[in-house]
Amino acid sequence: MNQPTPKSTFSTCPHDCPSACSVDVHFYPHGDVRRLNGARDNTYTAGVVCAKVARYPERLYHPDRLLTPLRRVGKKGEARFEEISWDAALDLVAEKFLAIEAEFGAQSIWPYYYAGTMGQVQRDSIHRLRHAKGYSRQFDTFCTNMAWTGFTAGTGRLAGPDPREMAQSDQIVIWGTNPVSTQINVMTHVTAARKKRGARVIVVDVYETETMKQADIGVVLKPGTDAALACAIMHVLFRDGFADWDYLNRFTDCPKELEAHLKTRTPDWAAEITGLDPTLIETVARHIGETKKTFFRLGYGFTRSRNGVVGMHAAASIACVIGSWQYEGGGAFHNNGGIYHFNKEMIEATSLKDPSVRALDQSQIGRILTGDPAALLGGPLVKAILVQNTNPVSVAPEQELVKEGFAREDLFTVVHEQFMTETAQMADIVLPATQFLEHDDIYKGGGHQYISLGPKAVEPPEGPRENLFVINEIAKRVDSKSHPGFDMSARDHIDWLLQNSGQGSFDELYSEKWRDVQPDFETSHFLNGFGHSDGKFHFKPAWGKTFSPNKPDGDTVFGPCSEMPELPDQWDVIELADEDHPLRLATSPSRSFLNTTFNETETSKKREGRPEVWIRPDDAVRFGIEDGAKVKLGNRRGVVTLHARHVETVAPGTVISEGIWPNAAFEDGRGINTLTGADPVAPYGGAAFHDTAVWIKAA
Ligand SMILES: Nc1nc2c(c(=O)[nH]1)N[C@H]1C(S)=C(S)[C@@H](COP(=O)(O)OP(=O)(O)OC[C@H]3O[C@@H](n4cnc5c(=O)[nH]c(N)nc54)[C@H](O)[C@@H]3O)O[C@H]1N2
Ligand SMILES: Nc1nc2c(c(=O)[nH]1)N[C@H]1C(S)=C(S)[C@@H](COP(=O)(O)OP(=O)(O)OC[C@H]3O[C@@H](n4cnc5c(=O)[nH]c(N)nc54)[C@H](O)[C@@H]3O)O[C@H]1N2
Ligand code: SF4
Ligand SMILES: [Mo]
Predict the structure, then answer these.
(1) What's the pLDDT score for residue 2?
(2) Residue spans in the chain of domains classed CATH 3.40.50.740
(3) Which CATH architecture has domain 583-698?
(4) Which pLDDT tens digit goes with each residue over 328-378?
(5) Closest C-alpha residue for ligand 1 atom 41
(6) DSSP H/E element including 417
């Protein structure tokens, strides 16, 4: 007899988002998923999810979902395929991988992944195959490098005050993040602080975002000038007696030196660099000085610049000058990655990892696939690539090179996907993937402090298989070193992970749904000392030697590391505007797409309209750009065609293009990342997606 369909169950949103929301999944009587909502009994999610996930059935039951394995029959990129069976597809993949390994060596095969799912099992099992075979490693650089490095350069640990404490703050500074779009739950706790305590909200961005529209004070500065603003704020704090010297002397490395260094970093100095009114800088600094319970919610956006590490470190330093870390509702928070301590041996086979195998820079995939010897780190050409949970033909910088690389006839490409993305279109073999409600996984919050379970809620359609299956089945066919992880189900993996990380078991977490692992107040606020060996916050980090979760192997550093300023300062390594490229472009997130995920759903596309570039009316006049006109944006990396919109509140000399639209939504198929660069940011790499000089002209 069939089991009666439950009315609802629980899960966790798997997408690449700091909120990692706990969700309730509601069913129709016939068993299909009806809708999702945020779990009310989870104290961070607090009943709220973003609109795109609330309407998840649109993605789950999308008519364009991939349902069968496919083999290319047309030319590369023509996207002509024939259906084949799973066995035939996996056998073919294994045969090719073995032949390529025999001829060119294991490192000519590159498993390429990212965070399209944040599930620990489904996302990270690819490393088990990689390490067991000695395939090339991946240096992850799309997202977190600059932010995490800048933050931990100061704090020594990627953690901070309980994010729910925002509700206890008197003032919240939302810096370089647009939570209304990118992590809506921040706003829940911000709103609570406003309602309960009349908290003031200050937002720092390069244009007036939806988040800024809700703020008491909006600070719209030129991209890549955040360190100048932070320095001027700290200058005023020292100058006007707001500095907490007891705190500074106990908890920081060189406060006197910082004070002296900032003497010349006046609001007038910063106004020149940031384009801000010096009186606005004075006002913001005074509000910060007068409000001990100030919570700095520091995002990723302002770090996606060539000086982004320095910007993050400078912003985090402000919390030290006023000693706001000492108070509930005070301090600086960026991400909680450092609190979880998961043992990943069974998922990733970390014991089989060979540090002598090269780690190729994910963002340089264009250079790598087109055979740039520097990007290949002196090793062999990449002859095969296995892609899971990412869409590099759209999201990676230097798109022209990425396309050229994937078009190589001698590159064997396997893409495991839910949809026929731009990357899947370039594949030799396309494998259909399950969606999160169709498989088991476990998640941890970057923006909160929960470990949460996402148990399988519905059966997948006939065809799609989970990532774990693909990895285990390839491993069996390519003579990989044996590892018990290849014989385990997702539930077994979750159970092992929890048992070996001191967090109970699968069954325990199933009954709890999520587990709060926030450290105690003293630890969270670094009142037992910061994470560095001297226990201090470092205003003067040893750049290139300092701890970061993103620190590459050995003493490898990137970019002009030796020129990084010793103390917080403006650092002019950004792609400055010049005569040929008079504007600076930031490619900020759109509300209804999540990177390229959801850019396949009709409601999201409808809400977003069309690819646009937003320009201030006065800048538009300078370049003769009418509101609504078709325009070209270009630089030495390429040219894109899109439509202009006049928007008043954008930083001067700056243009904004929201969202990663499908490449095909642009007139000539060239997506926004045609313009962005893949040169690594100092000191530990990362892509400067919001740091691009461009020209504009009417098309
Ligand atoms: N709806 C939606 N949600 C998302 C995503 C998405 O694409 N869409 N992406 C997800 C991912 S992968 C991540 S990593 C997170 C990232 O989320 P966030 O931390 O919010 O970071 P970003 O999305 O890069 O950019 C945030 C803001 O930084 C601004 N910004 C750009 N340059 C500067 C600068 O120089 N200074 C300052 N002060 N601000 C600047 C941008 O205009 C943007 O409004 O969001 C996740 N959530
Ligand atoms: N211009 C510009 N470019 C950017 C950024 C920006 O701000 N501006 N942001 C950058 C950042 S922060 C990031 S993190 C990257 C993100 O870029 P990507 O990692 O490419 O993220 P998505 O575009 O969301 O693509 C994820 C893909 O994974 C697939 N997927 C989801 N779940 C599963 C699964 O369980 N199994 C399999 N096999 N597939 C799955 C989805 O269908 C989707 O196609 O983009 C970067 N690119
Ligand atoms: S806010 Fe982020 S984690 Fe929450 S449902 Fe939306 S995409 Fe998922
Ligand atoms: Mo990201």
Answers:
(1) 57
(2) 70-139+341-434+459-493
(3) Beta Barrel (2.40)
(4) 999 999 999 999 999 999 999 999 999 999 999 999 999 999 999 999 999
(5) 588
(6) strand 412-417
Q: Which CATH superfamily is domain 161-333+539-563 in?
A: Dimethylsulfoxide Reductase, domain 2 (3.40.228.10)
**Which CATH code for domain 8-60?**
2.20.25
Between the alpha carbon of residue 231 and those of residues 146, 247, 328, the distances in Å are 19, 19, 25
pLDDT in tens, 4-35: 678 999 999 999 999 999 999 999 999 999 99
Identify the pLDDT of residue 75.
95
Kind plus residue range of the DSSP H or E element containing 612: strand 612-615
pLDDT, residue 4, reads 66
Q: Which of 124, 212, 112 is nearest to 172 (CA)?
A: 212
Instruction: Point out which residues pair with 173 in neighbouring strands.
Output: 202, 296
Q: How far apart are CA 323 and CA 690, in angstroms?
A: 31
Amino acid symbol at 93: V
Report how far ligand 4's centroid is from the alpha carbon of 594 (Å): 9
- List residues near ligand 1 (CB under 6 A): 16-17, 143, 176-178, 181-183, 204-207, 209, 223-224, 226, 299-302, 304-305, 586, 588-591, 593-595, 690
Q: Which amino acid is at 405?
A: G
How many other CB atoms sit within 10 Å of the CB of residue 639?
17
DSSP 149-164: HHHHHHHSSS--S-GG
According to DSSP, the β-strands at 429-432 and 412-417 are parallel
Domain with CATH 2.20.25 in the chain: 8-60
